[in-house]
Amino acid sequence: MQRYIILIRHAEASQNFGCPDLDRALSIKGEAQARSVAEWVAPFLNADCHQLQFIVSPALRTKQTAQALFARLGRAANCIYEPALYQTDEDGIWRLINEMEDAPSHLVIIGHNPALGRLVRSVARLTTSNEGDFGLELAAFAPSSCCVMVTRTGGFALRPQDLTIRAFREPAAEEASQG
pTM above the 0.90 mark? Predict the structure, then answer.
């Protein structure tokens, strides 16, 4: 069975310098970005989606980004708020992916940079995409960026070479085309 691994960086957070980082909410622009990424990724979650699992950082901005997806899908999804996702590196994300007891057909991880960007770049370096070269867009993995990857193997212990990038959303390019 082909599995989808979807990585989303939270939308833009407000610059509330007086509050703890975990409590930073989305900015007004971030709220719009969260709705936009939810609209963009929804077709990947509705089509042929047998089992949907979310792993979300406990930071408020990631929870709010997830809520935009739940609203767009019209239902709450199976969601784990994982403290380890808050300040992990790309190896930590791989551990979360590979430690899933029942590997879902669609796994959505909403977290932070630099870990998400590094993981996506590691996959991009080792695989070829049917959709073209995403190299330039992968440089920043800006807020509300999203990468949809599919497995090439049925195995459970995934590595970068086991995934292919199916689609990539870079918000700066999208905002420029709308401007």
Answer: no
